[in-house]
Design a protein that fits this description.
By secondary structure, the chain is α+β, with helices and mostly antiparallel strands. It has 17 helices and 13 strands. Helix content is about 45%, strand content about 15%. Strands 1, 3, 7, 8, 9, 10 and 11 form a 7-stranded antiparallel sheet that branches. Helix 16 runs antiparallel to helix 17. Its EC number is 2.7.7.-, 2.7.7.108.
Length: about 500
């Protein structure tokens, strides 16, 4: 079957790098091979030329009609081997059973200067795992994922990437009729917690071990020789994933990122931010903010994300327990999260404050400003950027004016100034390289999407440039660095996004 499919899939477009199919080598228990479903009249929405260069791909080639057709699913790059993977998972805390790539098709991995990177088409049509879905993505959601994955990369947060977005006039029904789109996602691997849950729940221990060995040998080979956790490689795998997840979520909290749908099938085994849907960067600092209109209980509110991540890791530990063989060992492998997360977050917050070392009282200093920000619902990105400018040499008034509780802020800033290092101006410059001027707020996405629906993709390109270098000034774009308009508070983002 594979040989016939591969021969049929060969197309004139040659990307250049050699293809590698590590996940496909696991066997048919892990996926279904299938071709994407074509879309009529595909066109290029945006091409991430900087990522293309990182991958060693020819950006001009990727912009050709032949490449646009290939990355819309109408043809296939020579050497690719399209497949949809099967996984299961907990959704909103409830076991959902079998899930899988319902609208994503993995083409395979390509050799790049940064190692093998997998290319995946999201929105490429129905698969055996689509359940009641149509297997499509819409232009709105594709633009949001494309821009946000690159925004996270620009902020230094571990993430999947996005190479290009294509569109089609094909109608797709969501809350309203929209048009189809495909985003090409890039990551070393798209393996999720849910892949392990799937085989564990079914009692398929051989497949579970095969998958774990693949992830270890490909991405964590050092755990084979580790003497930690009784030398158990599967416990050491869980420990590594726990540590990476702790670091990732600490970065989310520091930059004010709300994922919106932290199901176990949306958690990466590599500690990457994955599956951008109802995400949001905070405007006002509201700790219990819920960005997902579908999240009626607030399970994935901003301040609950750290605990949910641990809950998800506990589910992964349960899935790996048949391989680990000892419940206490599995629990010990989760300890790095509980130990690392607060340490990672405190480190990130010290960076935001321009503090170069750790001193007693730092936690109280951080908690003090967060309490003030929450009480007055102060704009989170604007506060940190103005504070950075103040430390670098600007006036205090623009920072102070953000607060209703002026005496409370005055008391805090007095303590803060006493804590600043001697090289204050240098600390301010570090802060300006830590606290972004440009954040991908929901209203900026919405404006770009509105123009894109009219066939004008210039705002998508402008935002891509800003979020890829969010700490720079970008003269002429200051309007995108200010407060959100009043109507932004009424934007509703749901799981269909």
């Amino acid at each position: 079957m594979h040989q016939a499919l591969a021969a049929e899939a060969d197309a004139p477009i040659e990307l250049g790098p050699a293809w590698r199919h590590g996940f496909a080598a696991l066997g048919s228990s892990f996926y279904t091979e299938l071709r994407p479903t074509p879309l009529p009249q595909p066109h290029l929405v945006s091409l991430n030329r900087s990522l293309a260069a990182e991958l060693g791909l020819d950006a001009d080639l990727l912009a050709t009609p032949e490449a646009v057709a290939a990355f819309t699913g109408n043809a296939l790059p020579a050497g690719s081997r399209p497949l949809a993977t099967v996984y299961s998972g907990h959704q909103f805390g409830v076991w959902a059973g079998q899930l899988g790539d319902g609208r994503a098709i993995l083409l395979g991995g390509v050799e790049t200067p940064a190692g093998v990177q997998e290319l995946q088409l999201k929105g490429a049509g129905r698969t055996p795992y689509s359940r009641m879905g149509d297997g499509r993505a819409v232009l709105r959601s594709s633009i949001r994922e494309y821009l946000c994955s690159e925004a996270m990369q620009g902020l230094g947060v571990p993430t999947t990437r996005a190479l290009l977005v294509t569109g089609s006039p094909q109608p797709v029904r969501r809350e309203e009729i929209e048009t189809a789109s495909v985003v090409t996602r890039v990551a070393p691997s798209f393996v999720r917690f849910g892949h392990f849950e799937h085989f564990s729940a079914r009692g398929q221990e051989e497949e579970l071990r095969q998958l774990a060995d693949y992830v270890i040998d490909t991405f964590y080979p050092h755990v084979r020789g580790s003497e930690a956790l009784a030398g158990n490689p599967y416990a050491n795998l869980l420990e590594q994933v726990s540590a990476r997840t702790a670091a990732m979520v600490a970065q989310w909290q520091a930059v004010g990122f709300c994922h919106g749908v932290m199901n176990t099938d949306n958690m990466s085994m590599l500690g990457l931010t994955i599956d951008y849907g109802p995400f949001q960067f905070l405007d006002a600092f509201v700790p219990n903010h819920i960005c997902n209109h579908s999240d009626e209980t607030g399970r994935y509110a901003y301040n609950r994300q750290p605990n949910v991540a641990y809950w998800n890791l506990f589910c992964l530990g349960q899935a790996l327990l048949p391989l680990i063989g000892d419940q206490e060992l599995a629990l010990a492998a989760l300890e790095p999260y509980q130990a690392s997360f607060p340490r990672e977050l405190e480190s990130r917050m010290r960076d935001k404050l321009g503090l170069v070392d750790e001193q007693p009282g730092d936690r109280q200093l951080v908690e003090g400003i967060l309490t003030l920000l929450a009480a007055d619902r102060v704009d989170y990105p604007v506060f940190w950027r103005r504070l950075s400018a103040f430390v670098a040499g600007s006036e205090l008034a623009p920072v102070r004016d953000l607060f209703l509780d002026r005496p409370g802020f005055d008391g805090w800033v007095s303590q803060y100034e006493a804590r600043l290092p001697d090289g204050r101006a240098e600390a301010g410059q570090r802060m300006l390289r830590t606290n972004p001027k440009y954040v991908l707020r929901n209203h900026l996405c919405e404006l770009a999407i509105r123009q894109a629906k009219l066939g004008d993709f210039s705002e998508v390109e402008a935002l891509l440039s800003l979020v890829q270098s969010p700490f720079d000034e970008h003269p002429g774009h200051e309007d995108k660095a200010g407060f959100p308009p009043d109507w932004a508070a009424h934007i509703e983002i749901s799981c269909s996004s």
